[in-house]
## 1
Amino acid sequence: MYDLMIIGSGPAGISAALTAKARNLNFIWFGSRALSTKIEKAEKIMNYPGLPTVTGSEMQSVFLKQIDDCGITITEAQVNSIYDCGGYFAAGAENEIYEAKSVIMTVGMTTTREIEGEARLLGCGVSYCATCDGALYKNKDIAVICASPKFEDEVTFLAGLANHIYLFTPYKETSLQYDNITHFNGLPASVDGDKKVASVTFKGEAIPVSGASS
Ligand SMILES: Cc1cc2nc3c(=O)[nH]c(=O)nc-3n(C[C@H](O)[C@H](O)[C@H](O)COP(=O)(O)OP(=O)(O)OC[C@H]3O[C@@H](n4cnc5c(N)ncnc54)[C@H](O)[C@@H]3O)c2cc1C
């Protein structure tokens, strides 16, 4: 019976594991030494305290070193079930059952409804975070997909950085009135480019852009 079980090895899981170690808990941590595909794919990270301007793989190396230096082990297994056993929890992973008094789930989140080319060009011009990646597109033309008017603040932020925004929305009207935003009702059919985003295709027409943000 462990004090704690941590599931997931992204930045949140790493923080939980470091704290559990500092508190001398008897814990098991499920994830992988690759840590997180999101970290791996990040082109350039500029907002992490203590690590100014690092690539995803540089951040991954620093995280792994800290984990190893602290003597923390990652159990490389996928957890596929968790049961509340009344007072403790049981988790199933690769034909084994593990028990702990507490569980911290740091499994991240997944996005859905991919556009053709989106996954392939993730980290190569495709981005999901205006605050994190906006500066990469300063004075450039970009495509922005905004799923709901409630996220339009993010588009306003990007409009202050980019040269021109091609804004795609599933809804018809937008309150955004900027000279450097062209609004289309609908979503692009694909994000195109060889190693980097070069354009998006909308209604059969290729629109040249340097990045695509959703
Ligand atoms: C291209 C790109 C660039 C980014 N750039 C920045 C940036 O510059 N600045 C910034 O602040 N953020 C950036 N982000 C966002 C940042 O990467 C995420 O916010 C962060 O990784 C979330 O951390 P997390 O620990 O919550 O989840 P994740 O990083 O998603 O980690 C979750 C982990 O849990 C594992 N897992 C899930 N289910 C199970 C299970 N059942 N059993 C075992 N393991 C499991 C997953 O495999 C994964 O390793 C970027 C993201 C991407 C994709």
Note: The two ends are 43 Å apart (CA to CA).
## 2
Amino acid sequence: MAHQVIRVGGVSEQTEQTQSGVVIVGAGMAGVQTAVALREQGYTGPVTLLGAEPHQPYDRPPLSKAVLLGKAEDSAFDVDFEALGIGLRLGVEVTGLRADVREVDTEAGPLPYDVLVLATGARPLTLPGSDGVPGVHLLRTLDDAARLRPVLAEAPPVVVVGAGWIGAEFATAAREAGCAVTVVEAAERVLAGAVPAEVAEPMGNWYAEAGAELLTGARVASVEEGRVHLADGRTLEAGAVVVGIGARPATDWLAGSGVELGPDGSVTADARLRTSVPGVYAVGDCASFPSARYGERLLVHHWDNALQGPRVVAANIVAQDAAETGPYDPVPYFWSEQFGRFVQYAGHHGGAEEMVWRGDPAGASWSVCWLRGGALVAVLAVGRPRDLAQGRRLIEAGTALSPAAVSDPEIPLKSASA
Ligand SMILES: Cc1cc2nc3c(=O)[nH]c(=O)nc-3n(C[C@H](O)[C@H](O)[C@H](O)COP(=O)(O)OP(=O)(O)OC[C@H]3O[C@@H](n4cnc5c(N)ncnc54)[C@H](O)[C@@H]3O)c2cc1C
């Protein structure tokens, strides 16, 4: 360890530190963006980025789209880590945090830090009893996508477990590859945790349109090689099974570290993305944060959150938590490409009082707007990117809208003020 003395932010006591600098655990979108944002914002101390995966850091959204279908080789980030002076260490899993001595443990030994950023993302949930069964896949990593690519190229019948965002995107790719696709969903509808039943209904119809069979209210009882057995006695033949039933923050390694976790496994960060331990921040899929905008704690598992959060973490580190850096309170945003449609969502509709349709949900493009106290709080747009872009700005501004004007898809949202 070097012994040049520097000062770094995010350290409550603000004592002089030895030159360990900022250590970031997790080299996904949030970790990489934090490292880059630190340099962009003028941080000159050492930055070390530790990633468990052996691959050059990469973007995940293409894994269920172009990379899966072989239309793109990989999705590595275009970042010159060396030129930015970022110490990238790949294939290094961090196994523990000893906050009292400001060190993390890795298989290669302990590593000191002055400021630590937790960016370990999320791990997909697995289907009980399916571990090690040949032909059962998850879709989270580049390795997962690389394993699935040759499978799709052979176009076997596939069973997708879970009709959420990943399940829909994988079903889309599998249909495009020519597979017979059956999607098994335990809830009575698609996207059960994400959108209300009225909105899920037209989206559920996209499966049949694309030639995929959707079985809702269907529970998997067991899986064996080549077959999925449902609780109602049905058996589905499956050359491959893809499980997309959600993800949980990858925070097990923090047990006993003193970093406070919520019941959902997320690091419960504060409004500046600081954890309960001084000098330790958390960002991306592994962290939840209090949203004053929505009056509740949010755990967001989407790309834009792993882009925006790091800028706030970096600003707080550089400014040493000075008041002017402000809280992290974004209008959450994500997109999904499924069944030939571009779906975008901004905001958070929990707590909305009114839902207004724009256009015919049976048609190719439509939107749904959610209002609270007359103001737009969330918008879901299918093939209507202008609604999304304008809606996002209106949500940020808290502008009151006229429901009658909102319901007319010919009136631009930005002209629908009350
Ligand atoms: C297939 C797929 C498609 C997606 N498509 C979309 C989309 O269309 N739109 C959208 O908005 N979002 C999409 N997402 C979500 C988006 O990719 C995530 O929100 C984003 O990747 C989160 O970034 P992150 O850095 O927080 O976590 P991650 O990307 O999960 O990165 C965390 C990294 O930390 C590493 N790590 C974990 N534990 C340790 C440890 N103990 N030590 C060292 N390293 C560790 C992991 O190996 C991983 O590389 C998609 C996700 C997936 C999986």
Note: The helical segments are 29-40, 142-153, 165-176, 197-209, 303-318, 385-397, 403-406.
